[in-house]
Structures are given as structure tokens and as C-alpha cells.
UniProtKB/TrEMBL annotation:
<dbReference type="InterPro" id="IPR027417">
    <property type="entry name" value="P-loop_NTPase"/>
</dbReference>
<dbReference type="InterPro" id="IPR003593">
    <property type="entry name" value="AAA+_ATPase"/>
</dbReference>
<dbReference type="GO" id="GO:0016020">
    <property type="term" value="C:membrane"/>
</dbReference>
<dbReference type="Pfam" id="PF03459">
    <property type="entry name" value="TOBE"/>
</dbReference>
<feature type="domain" description="Mop">
    <location>
        <begin position="292"/>
        <end position="358"/>
    </location>
</feature>
<keyword id="KW-1003">Cell membrane</keyword>
<dbReference type="InterPro" id="IPR004606">
    <property type="entry name" value="Mop_domain"/>
</dbReference>
<dbReference type="GO" id="GO:0140359">
    <property type="term" value="F:ABC-type transporter activity"/>
</dbReference>
<dbReference type="GO" id="GO:0005524">
    <property type="term" value="F:ATP binding"/>
</dbReference>
<feature type="domain" description="ABC transporter">
    <location>
        <begin position="2"/>
        <end position="233"/>
    </location>
</feature>
<dbReference type="InterPro" id="IPR011868">
    <property type="entry name" value="ModC_ABC_ATP-bd"/>
</dbReference>
<keyword id="KW-0547">Nucleotide-binding</keyword>
<keyword id="KW-0067">ATP-binding</keyword>
<dbReference type="InterPro" id="IPR017871">
    <property type="entry name" value="ABC_transporter-like_CS"/>
</dbReference>
<dbReference type="GO" id="GO:0016887">
    <property type="term" value="F:ATP hydrolysis activity"/>
</dbReference>
<keyword id="KW-0997">Cell inner membrane</keyword>
<dbReference type="InterPro" id="IPR003439">
    <property type="entry name" value="ABC_transporter-like_ATP-bd"/>
</dbReference>
Length: 364
């Protein structure tokens, strides 16, 4: 099921002029505050009508301003989950869920109620009022309510933004489960690189109402040109790894296409495929294979491209087997090492280069 979107609109000085496709899987809409993410999500959901636009979902035309087609929100079969959940406070959880189910067209495919309750772990919450739920529980109920309407597509606008760090980590596995088992494509609005690196298959990067870049998450996030947009602290590469084993000293061995990584224990069984994000600032480069170094992660790589930032840093894109690794080093170091495309060298990763929250399930 593919969503195809083109939109143009002006709010005073701000103009939105975008075109992109989303689905199957999770497509992230990423950009700084004011880039136009929420306006796009609202237009897709049918909550805002742009001056010009066309939105098609799996061949159904939801909006075509030229042809004066503008399907109402509830006919679009698009489930929406907002940052604040927006549960009905006077209804208990079961009542909120029943409200979602009312919109499900007869015979529409999708997981049944019991599966949805189990997927989101809310079986025990049915008699509770929203006011008594934690932020994470509210969001899980909002997700279940949206899914019970059997949508063909889900739009989530910063669904984790109201949650604190530990609560975000609690709910991310549910979103991974939703992605892998409910099989409803998702447009996921976020300005968190970490969330996007964990969940999304594709990313649409927005800036000032325009699409700057769109493509597979691993390609876009490991592109050195993206570092200024993503932010130097957040920049990093995303790739899949297979858990090879857990060692008695609390470390796990992970197989990646270009070698083996040793990281603090990851929460996945041997044999499982996981997705990891390696922060560019935690990758060092060496021309020789270093000896007597504390790091166990020394990987042979080849320089692909360098991108000089505005400051003293250079982003270096490296080929690691089938994957791309991003390193951020100083321009002085890059010059002294003579880094240039094609050069073979060694990447050194600290065991802490993959933050805990940046280990997720690989998309099944
Ligand atoms: N109804 C409106 N009236 C006037 N201006 C609006 C309206 N809705 C959005 N805008 C403007 O459009 C621009 C994009 O807003 P939008 O909320 O889509 O961005 P965003 O990327 O979702 O930002 P954030 O991450 O802060 O939510 C902003 O400059 C905003 O002020």
C-alpha cells in the first residue's frame, strides 16, 4: 500500500511545496521545528486542506484539488496518533477502543481485537480511565484505538514526544512490533534521529517546507552531507547486525557485513537480527591496524567520501563490507592522515559507540 503525496500551501511567509511517496513499512518525516511536518501529516489525515495537492493511497484518490476531490477524514481509512494521545477522558480504555472499532469497515483485513490488545500490552488496562494512565500507556491505547478502525495507513505525529527517555524506550518495542506484525504502513513524524534510526525504513528530510532528501534510512543517515541537518552529535550510521553470542563478561558479539563488533550486552537472542546506530563522533580512524589499543572493535574500511563542515569537523563516509559507516573527525586529522576516496584504513569503535536506546529489532 503506497501513499503518494504532492502538496502546496502558503501560511504567510511560509510555503509548503512537497512531493514524496510512503510505504510499505515505516516512512519517517524528519525535519527541524517549523519544517512543515505536522501540516503534511494533517493534510494526509484530512484534517487540513492545502491550497493545491493530490494524495493517493493504494490507487484511491483522497485529495485532488484540481478535480475538487477532498475525501472527509473518516472515509480516508487513515489512522492518526498524535503526540498527546487525545483519548476521550470520560470513557474508560474499553470505551475508547470501542470508539475506534466503530469506524472499521465490515470485513476489512487486519489484526483482530485480541491480537491488537496483546501487541500493545493493554489487556490489563481496559477498565481504567485515561486520567489514571501513564503517558506511555495512553499512547499504547491511542495506537490500539487507531488500529481497531482497521486503517490502511497510520499517521503518527511525534507519538513519543511527550514521554521521558525511559518511557520512550518502553514504547519503542511496541512500535517495532506494530511495524513487523500489524503490517500497516506508517508515516512517522519525528525530529528524533534515534527514533527514526530504530523504526523507519525510509526517511523524507524536510527543511523550510521542501523535501531536501528522501531514501532508505541507512543511506540517508550515513550520508556525510546530512551531518549538518542531523546535527553533529546525532549523526551516525544505521545498519543490521546479527547477534553471534553473549560473553560472560557482559559483552555481546555482533556480526556485521564487514566484521565483528563487540558491544555491551544487547537484549536479543543469538541468531537474531538487530538494527544498530553507530554515532559518527565515536568512530576513530587509523591508517594502520592499531596494536595495544583498548578497543576490541577494529574494522577494515575504505574511504568513500569526505564532507567538510562549517566548523573544524569533517564527516567521512566509509565502506564497511556491504554497509556504510560514518565517522566524524577533525579536518586537521583528515589532512594529516591524507584521507581521500578509495583509501583503505581501519575504523575503531568504542564499545559505547552504540547508545543503549539505539539497538532495535531489525524490520522482519
Ligand atoms: N494554521 C496555521 N496558520 C498559520 N501558520 C501555520 C498554520 N499551521 C502551520 N503554520 C506554519 O507553518 C509552518 C510549518 O508548521 P508545522 O507545524 O507544519 O511544522 P513542523 O515541522 O510540524 O514543526 P514542529 O516540529 O514544531 O511541530 C510554521 O511556520 C507554522 O507556524
Amino acid at each position: 500500500m503506497t501513499l503518494a503525496v504532492t502538496l502546496a500551501h502558503a501560511f504567510g511567509d511560509f510555503t509548503l511545496d512537497v512531493g514524496f511517496k510512503a510505504g510499505p513499512g515505516v516512512t519517517a518525516l524528519f525535519g527541524p521545528s517549523g519544517a512543515g511536518k505536522t501540516s503534511i501529516a494533517n493534510a494526509v489525515a484530512g484534517l487540513f486542506t492545502p491550497r493545491e495537492g493530490r494524495i493517493e493511497l493504494g490507487g484511491r484518490v483522497l485529495l485532488d484539488t484540481a478535480a475538487k476531490v477532498n475525501m472527509s477524514a473518516h472515509k480516508r481509512r487513515i489512522g492518526v496518533v498524535f503526540q498527546d494521545g487525545r483519548l476521550f477522558p470520560h470513557l474508560d480504555v474499553a470505551g475508547n477502543l470501542a470508539f475506534g472499532a466503530r469506524y472499521a469497515p465490515r470485513g476489512a483485513p487486519g489484526p483482530d481485537r485480541a491480537e491488537i490488545l496483546a501487541l500493545l500490552g493493554i489487556e490489563e488496562l481496559l477498565s481504567r480511565r485515561p486520567g489514571t494512565l501513564s503517558g506511555g500507556e495512553k499512547q499504547r491505547v491511542a495506537l490500539a484505538r487507531a488500529l481497531l478502525a482497521r486503517p490502511e495507513f497510520l499517521v503518527m505525529d511525534e507519538p513519543l514526544a511527550a514521554l521521558d527517555g525511559p518511557r520512550k524506550d518502553d514504547i519503542l518495542p511496541y512500535l517495532e512490533g506494530l511495524r513487523d506484525r500489524a503490517r500497516v504502513p506508517i508515516l512517522y513524524v519525528s525530529h528524533s534521529v534515534s527514533e527514526i534510526a530504530r523504526l523507519a525504513d525510509r526517511i523524507v528530510v524536510l527543511r523550510e517546507g521542501r523535501v531536501l532528501r528522501a531514501g532508505p534510512v541507512a543511506d540517508v543517515l550515513s550520508d556525510p552531507e546530512m551531518v549538518p541537518l542531523v546535527g553533529v552529535r546525532e549523526a551516525g550510521s544505521v545498519f543490521e547486525a546479527q547477534v553471534l553470542g553473549h560473553d560472560a563478561d557482559g559483552l555481546s558479539r555482533l556480526g556485521v557485513s564487514g566484521g565483528t563488533l563487540i558491544l555491551p550486552r544487547v537484549d536479543a537472542d543469538p541468531g537474531k537480527h538487530i538494527r544498530i546506530r553507530v554515532l559518527a563522533q565515536d568512530v576513530l580512524l587509523s591508517l594502520e591496524s592499531p596494536k595495544g589499543l583498548s578497543s576490541r572493535n577494529i574494522l577494515p574500511v575504505r574511504v568513500e567520501a569526505l564532507h567538510q563542515g562549517a566548523g573544524p569537523g569533517v564527516a567521512v563516509s566509509l565502506r564497511l563490507g556491504e554497509d556504510r559507516l560514518l565517522a566524524r573527525i577533525t579536518a586537521r586529522a583528515a589532512a594529516e592522515l591524507g584521507l581521500r576516496p578509495g583509501l583503505a584504513c581501519h575504523a575503531i569503535l568504542k564499545a559505547t559507540a552504540v547508545p543503549r536506546g539505539d539497538v532495535g529489532a531489525a524490520h522482519e
